[in-house]
Amino acid sequence: MQYIILDLEWNQPLSYQSQTYREVGDRLIFEMIQIGAVKLDSGLQIVDSVSLPIAPTHYLRIHPRIRRMTGLDSETLAGAPAFREALEQFAAWCGEDYVLLTWGCDDVSVLWQNISFFHCEDIVLPPLCDIQRLFSDVHQLRDRIGLKAAMEMMQIAPDEARSFHNALNDAWYTALVFRTLPDPAAVLNYAQAPKKLVHTRRSSREKTPGEAFDSVREALESNLVMHPTCPRCGRVLALDGEYIKQSADKYLAVAKCRNHGRILIRLRFRIDDDGKRVLYRSTAPANSTHVAYIHTKQLQLEERRRRWLEEHGSLPDPDEELLRAEPTDMPFES
Ligand SMILES: [Zn+2]
């Protein structure tokens, strides 16, 4: 059996008001523009690789962010095969008796959406298994970590000639990380189901613009966090207990407005190009499920802290966790 590690690059609408997006809507949020893959034999030697550019047929102009990251632009892709042809070439290259692997959960959803949108269900591919989740389990990591961070952990130095965010190079690096796993075949237990992608149009929530801080701790002590306001009347709210950490980049709490009842406060961190921690806060009316969930987590908090201290001697550093985490930006349907 061969292992094929796949990585995709995709384009996105320049604007959700664009003519194209208005026509295709959520049926094609991301249009694939490159398939990269490497093939490993059963002894985990890299035996082949492929890079297939794809000419977009809907979002013709490459979003500036994507262009910057991938180095792919409309001119480069103009002569490339369209999606169906590229996928056929890829399936032929895969051959027989292989498993398909990716790093993380995003690619499978984008691939599935493109296959469905372009009516290519007749090109049969096996389920995709997630190396990132196996890696997290093996190393007992609480969050999914990025490919770069995983490489650092395993002391794999990036190759100057192989820039990140190129589908072939990322697949190549993923293969190097994959080979460090004690039981790579265990990845077959991590088959992933695609998730539905949706662009959330109107939100009833209020979201603050990002505010930059030097550290997560500093952000968590700021007014933005400690004194949230009601999205409906603007009144400063009393927090109902502590914030709970959902993942390295997400925190939740409930607060009370005397006129509007319980309000759910969500915090989300991003790291900007200068290494600052940018915090976004969104607030919305809370339902009973939110309240019960947060209450339960708050009750578990003390116990978890106590156990962590026993095991590690100090509490986890939220900044370190955030730097290592790889938060997904994908607009998955919640
Ligand atoms: Zn209110």
List the helices and strands and how they pair.
Blueprint: E1 2-11, H1 19-24, E2 31-40, E3 46-53, H2 64-70, H3 74-77, H4 83-94, E4 98-102, H5 106-117, E5 128-130, H6 131-138, H7 147-153, H8 167-178, E6 206-207, E7 211-213, H9 216-220, H10 223-226, E8 238-239, E9 244-247, E10 250-257, E11 261-271, E12 277-285, H11 288-312, H12 318-324
Parallel strand pairs: 1-4, 4-5
Antiparallel strand pairs: 1-2, 2-3, 6-12, 7-12, 8-10, 9-10, 10-11, 11-12
The structure holds zinc ion.
Task: Please give a structural write-up.
The protein has 2 domains: 2-190, Ribonuclease H-like superfamily/Ribonuclease H (Nucleotidyltransferase, domain 5); 206-324, no CATH class. It is α+β, with helices and mostly antiparallel strands and 334 residues long. Strands 6, 7, 8, 9, 10, 11 and 12 form a 7-stranded antiparallel beta sheet that branches. A 5-stranded mixed beta sheet has the order 3-2-1-4-5. Helix content is 33%, strand content 22%.
Number of strands: 12
User: How is the CATH topology of the largest domain named?
Assistant: Nucleotidyltransferase, domain 5
Low-pLDDT residue intervals, each spanning 5 or more residues: none
CATH architecture of the largest domain: 2-Layer Sandwich
Concise summary:
Helices cover 33% and strands 22% of the residues. By secondary structure, the protein is an alpha+beta fold.
What are the defining features of this structure?
alpha+beta; Nucleotidyltransferase, domain 5; single chain; 334 residues; 33% helix; globular; binds zinc ion; 12 strands; 2 domains
